[in-house]
Amino acid sequence: MNGAESLVRSLVVSGVDTCFANPGTSEMHFVAALDHVPGIRCVLGLQENVVTGAADGYWRMLHKPAATLLHLGPGLANGLSNLHNARKANSGIVNIVGEHATYHLQYDAPLTSDIDGIARPVSQWIGRAKAAHDVAKLGAEAVTVARSGSGKIATMVLPADTAWTEVTGPAPAMVPPPRAKVDDSAIAAAAAALKKAGTRGMLVLGGHALLRPCLEVAARIAAVTGCQLSNPGASARMERGGDLPRVGRVPYILSQALAYLKDTDEMVLVGCRRPVAFFAYPGQPSLLTPETCNITPVADVDDDLLDALERLADALKAPKGKVAGPAQLPKPALPEGGVSVEKIAAAITALLPDHAIVLDESLTSGRGIFAAAEAAGPHDWLQNMGGSIGYSMPMAVGCAVACPDRKVVVLTGDGSAFYTLQALWTMAREQLNITVVVFANRTYNILRGELTNVGVSNPGPRAVDMLTLDRPDPDWVALAKGHGIAGVRVTEMGDFSRAFAAALETRGPQLVELVF
Ligand SMILES: Cc1ncc(C[n+]2csc(CCOP(=O)(O)OP(=O)(O)O)c2C)c(N)n1
Fold it and tell me: Which atom of ligand 1 is least distant from the CA of 389?
């Protein structure tokens, strides 16, 4: 077998069964090897940011890395924005980046570039095969790195000659190191803080602390101390609804964030850092907690968060049994008539199917959905952790590949959706079970507010022109059709609810464009 086949076999042995790919000449041996080796599903993305975003979504649902296949430095560079988001979400991904043959690099051919330099800011590990016999072992190592801690991004550079040269065989799987247990002193400090603060305490959760077994322990801690539960502003993935405790989030809007945290005397961090403002604004604070608030970091996202929470619950003498879930809120009535943020939130909440996977990139249109959706049935809520927009449709591809039996719901602003609309084609080709809602307000609405926030009053027509998506008006139904997906345009809330419900009932990809 050649180096490429030894790599594919090593990936399979290490538990990788999915590869999101956009190949070129230097990756042809890897592509050919996919046919010789059973056990890997290969999914084509038409732009690399679709590929990397899909790998992020796949990890977030399964906590198992997918591979990406990317074409040299430019292919990797196209995927950087969603790798940035994936890194901020602490996702595990194995990037396989093709490279010129080792002896060809000296000639500075057109696609020659500093791949390691491009990879560095988004990769916790970079491995470069120097010879064919390195390839299998590097592949196994890359998977192990990707699976370590909360998840890591491992980028392996594969020169073409190391892929085509004959080698002896694949490498065995390696075991990632176990997650670290936090010190007793951190647990004791957190217990004292939460006990002292009572209802003025806040337990802020990140990473896998926002998933079921941890949330059940967090509920016990909240029940015994009276503390609030929150995430620091966004969640890579949060399980919600049903019998799970209600977990708030620090709002994006600065004044709201300050108000949300103003009565917090003690903040305990498990699996996340302290909440900070998304941006600095003239004359406004970067840190969101009051100066009087004491902060106790307990566990880093890579640590064993379930163990940390269980020990914290024990230290607080929280009763062992499961805490009863919050009372079910009534589902809102389906709205009719003109579009508003409140009506959008009501319609989505009323219709969201149980066990939906929600990719929230709805920005200003969806400001009310997160809170309202507490009245929905059990679902997962995934957000952009890196602030680089264009993440939700690619992520949906990965989530739907990972969880084919669940409905994936994308809630996206039209501006965000434009960055990676090629994801629609992959949804169609793979017939993924995804409903895409595009909030077509035909502006970068959030940036209008940001203009005021940074102190620009009375923006001129050129500035306003940079924030509008009209002239021409985009046609998302036509764009969906061009990518192989049926879509419908609605302009009123009754029609929206009917179209959204019909899309949810259809297996496979559907798009609803709400123009307002
Ligand atoms: C990669 C990247 N480019 C640009 C931005 C800046 N940006 C933030 S929000 C936004 C507009 C989002 O528009 P849309 O998705 O339509 O949502 P709306 O603000 O209208 O609710 C832009 C351009 C960004 N965050 N990331």
Answer: 26
Rounded to the nearest angstrom, the distance between the alpha carbon of 322 and the centre of ligand 1 is 41
In DSSP terms, 410 is beta-bridged to: 359, 436
Alpha helices in 147-247 (DSSP H): 160-164, 184-197, 212-225
- The 10 Å CB-count burial string (b at 16+, else e) for 176-189 is eeebeebeeebbeb
Query: Which residues, at least 6 apart from 71, have a Cβ–Cβ distance to it below 8 Å?
Result: 22, 23, 24, 26, 27, 48, 97, 98, 111
Cα angle: 258, vertex 339, 378; to 5 degrees: 65
Q: List residues near ligand 1 (CB under 6 A).
A: 81, 363-365, 387-389, 413-416, 441, 443-447
Ligand 1 mean position, distance from CA 447 (Å): 7
pTM strictly above 0.90: yes
409-435 per-position pLDDT tens digit: 999 999 999 999 999 999 999 999 999
Can the peptide bond before residue 251 be classed as cis, meaning omega within 30 degrees of 0? no
Q: How many Å lie between the centroid of ligand 1 and the Cα of residue 440?
A: 13
Structural tokens at position 475: 């046609």
Sheet holding 66-70, edge to edge: 41-44, 18-21, 66-70, 93-99, 153-159, 125-128
The CA 190 to ligand 1 mean position distance, Å, reads 37
Long-range contacts of 211-215 (CB under 8 A, 24+ apart): 211/237, 211/238, 211/239, 212/239, 212/244, 213/306, 214/270, 214/271, 214/305, 214/306, 214/309, 215/239, 215/244, 215/245, 215/247
According to DSSP, the residues that pair with 436 across neighbouring strands are 410, 511
- 238-274 pLDDT per residue, tens: 999 999 999 999 999 999 999 999 999 999 999 999 9
